[in-house]
Specification:
Length: about 550
Amino acid sequence: MPKVEKLFAGLFELKLVLITLCCLLIFKFLITLNLALIFSTFFFESAIYVLILLLYLVLAKKLNVTAKIIFYVLFAFHTFATLLSTYFMPDFLYRKYSILSINAGTASFVIKDLFPIKYMIIIVGVLAGIFLIAYFLPNLKLNINAKAKWIAFAVCVILLVLIPNLFSGKFESVYTNTINDLFIFGKQDIPIRDVNYDPNVVNLEKTIQNYNLGELKYKRIFFFVMEEISSGMFEKDLQNISKEKNFFEKVKQQSNYYENYYTNHQDSRGALLVLLSSIFVSYESYSYSDWYDLYARQIIESKNLVEFFNQNNFSTVFLSSIVDAPFEMQKYPWKKFDTLSENDYDSASNDYLCMHVLQYEKACEDRVLLKNLEKLAHSENIFVLDEFIYGHTHKYIEEKKQTRLEYYNDFFYDFYTYLEENNLLDDTLIVITSDHGLKDPSSSLTIEGYKIPLIFIANDLNYFLNNNLLSHMEFKDILFSYILKNHKFENPDCVYITGTTQSNLFAYVCDKDYAVVNYLGTPYLVSSSSTNILNNISYNFSFFLGYKKYFEGNN
């Protein structure tokens, strides 16, 4: 007879895990109805809980106190990671977050700014309830064969290996992403040189030198910043929009397209700073808890587009369907903020899609402020920046069943129709771009992931395609070439790009080559146009590091 052990007799930890798994499964169904995603992640996470239990059982025979400490540390970490990834499940599936990229600043941002406080309180309450239920439930009396623990171990390992492969594209886990980061084969180390920043070589601070540049051509300038639209995504989604209500087709003959245009930063916060201040943002936006004093203050307090329009007697309006403007936007000298109040948010929730998925972003879909935008269109000498909200989390796309571009197209079409019907198109310039490209890991390793649309639309323009290499750093000069007489500027030889938070990526693109470099630990090449340009890559990456050192030294 095989030896039978009462391994789980009265085991409080087993009850704790079982109740947690029940709550976790319910939580997943509240977040998404994607069954493949729910069950693949549930069984993967369950296998990790079982492994933690098995480790506890092995250690408890000789080191009972130590075993309990190890169990509760691992249980707490895994539970927090599981709840966090479940709450942001659609975004985690897309972004592929990794434990390796988390630092103190990022962790602080996640806890304070991403995860809504009310949900933190609910989770703490639920965990307390789990402990109470486990405490008062009668002790389990489960007799199992001692060999069963090895069978359980083998089954768990098999699940951990099979699930990510069987459900590829329908599965997410910070653990598998971390393993992928640890074992990237074929990487090529980048030698670092001692290169000081020299603006005469590559100018990364193209601030406005003079606010008095003459009379402005247009009386109304509407600047729309879409959320995470790459040029490739733009072209793909455009094909799915019917010609009858295709805004971009409707205005094509009055449009100028910039087809070789790039973001300089893969986070919204950093991208907006570059657009308004024309200074390269060399740091990841959400990696530093004291980011404003460390970096952003210096950028925002420089000469910028908002103050330029103020000095030229324009009304400057920041418009976004969010409760309170983002902190960094509040630091710019806008004459008006057109955002939502708490009461606006509550009343709008009846007719529009409103969400509080992120702690720092209590917002509604962009259409909620369309009427406000139409009222502003009757003003003269006005500059409006409308930062779009739709698609900032994938929950919007899941709920509305529209891609970002499909939603934006309908918004633009209705706004343009209003301008047309009210004879407001003359003296009006519409500018459309995206804050950044695609953040998913596969796109971030290609230079196409950073290429974004830039479109200028006005009645006095003719259809034109511009293929010059340009970026957000040049946006101010591109805009000036439309609103000022005889404004000239030099095109850059290369464009520099800072990757999204947690990516540790730097990218550059020149006329003849590009590269994407990971600088976590030893810098290494992850993507390039050629493997024979290591000298160029080394120089450009070293120049980027030299600028970071220069910028931080001047702050």
